Amino acid sequence: MNANSALQLLKVKGYKYTGKRELIIHRIYNENRYLSAKEVFGFMQKDYPNLSIDTIYRNLSLFEELSILESTEFEGERLFRFAGSNDHHQHHIICIKCRKTIPFEGCPMNNISNVPDGFEITGHKFEIYGYCKDCD
Description:
Elements: H1 3-12, H2 19-30, E1 35-36, H3 37-44, H4 53-65, E2 69-74, E3 77-82, E4 91-95, E5 101-104, E6 127-130
Parallel strand pairs: 4-6
Antiparallel strand pairs: 1-3, 2-3, 4-5
Helix pairs in contact: 1-2, 3-4
């Protein structure tokens, strides 16, 4: 999925196509890192000075619900990034300074063999935190 297909998905699902939503999606798509709602609010302020932070949160939540964005929690704050391809799940290495995300191949779940009987795994999340070469 790219920014244009994400915007098309909004239309298909019956949501309004607005300049605000377009700007949010394109900006997050062009970032290779997680962003907080406050950061999104900050870059939107120039074009939309009367925008509320609640509008940002509502749109980010909608985009996550539609699998346009994915989120993580870091140091007590919810962060968002463009979800990318939906054909397989991906795990990431995340820089704790600049929040750049780097996908890596493989899945640690392949090595888990001691799942209790009667427990059905329906999903998982695995992230590795550290410093990228630019922030080292």
